[in-house]
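Quick one, T. Sequence first:
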Amino acid sequence: MTLQQLKYIVEVANCGSFNDAAKNLFITQPSLSGTVRTLEEEIGFDIFRRNNRGIEVTVEGREFLGYARQVLEQTELMEEKYLHKTQQKQLLSVSTQHYMFAVNAFVNLIHIYGRESYEFALRETKTYEIMEDVQNFKSEIGILYLNTFNEKILLKFIKEKNLVFEELFRTRPYIFIGKNNPLAAREHVTLEDLEELPYLRFDQGEYNSFYFSEEILSTVSHKKTIVVNDRATLFNLLIGLNGYTISTGFISNQFGDQIIAKPLLEDDEIKVGYVLRKNHVLSKLGQMYIDSLKKVLYPDIS
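Structure tokens:
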């Protein structure tokens, strides 16, 4: 097994095509295919499954690619530090559901870190992809929630992916609405109060199961539903259409008083936490991010 082979398979996975990868690597397609086949024979399983539509990464290949990317990243860092004599960049990647407190903690971390050179990544993405990102070493930390409905299923996936869940906090369900929403003056709301309002939720893509929804009560039917992919769009629609979404109740002061949270009278509890690879020891930056999260969530606790 060589670094060149690892570079080749990562390029194939990134391109989704042997032909495109060969062009980027400036080699012939048969040469690339032969190199990949030699590696697959050496490790004893297929990394890619070839079909009429192109290629698909196998289950074993997905895990192998995660390790390959990590090896290449570490090699690049060593080359920068010891061959090119440049200052080593510090790396941290976090994948999260669409939580503003996760963004605020990330901002605070960067202010605290204060170095001239770093490479950080914050991915607001889908629930299943959060677990895959951590499993495949794309992110060190993944932030998501559990509740009575999804907990058994998600913990099963978390265990199968050799991850662990660490709880950050628990909260009752809230709705987010615009300050001019007809329900803004209420102390709390019920599902019946929300029947005529547009309901906004985040798209979960291929894994659009009730269990992977970012919003609790995912099996409840709605007269009006709008599916979005990003938080800014969701908040703009909350304001512009007097819509609502269901979340944790934590709102950033970035929106001033434009978005408000109201308790939703439902007998449920949300457990927000983060997933890590099993037996993984947090990096210094990873621990700094978790500490920053806790300060955002519990500002009165030193």
